[in-house]
Specification:
With 119 residues, this protein is an alpha/beta fold. It has one domain: Response regulator (Rossmann fold), CATH 3.40.50. Helix content is 39%, strand content 20%. Helix 4 links the parallel strand 4 and strand 5. Helix 2 packs parallel to helix 3. It is globular, with a radius of gyration of 13 Å.
Amino acid sequence: MADSLPVLICDDEPRLTMLTAGLLEQRGYRSKVANDGARALELASQETFRLMLLDVNLAGMSALDVIRGLDAAGIELPVLLSSGYSAEDVPAELRDHPRVSGFLAKPYPVDRLIDAISS
């Protein structure tokens, strides 16, 4: 059974966030969506999440800026990165950040997402 804490999904593609949220709901997970980094930080400051699924290539605020915002606010939240690019294309400063728990290449199968969230 899924953990009671929701997953925070941050991606600037609204259709993808809604699809991901729906797939997680079908598997028993709750989620909240943010379509930009500022909204993700706002939500993370208001509620406790099990992890954040964070798009590497956000428009506006970068994924690294989102992580730095979590650090600055003292918010303990693991981050699972996702991107249409390979993990090798993610800057090392972002990929190797201690808060980052993993990487999913888009498009990812729902079972791989569930495995990453569950571990």
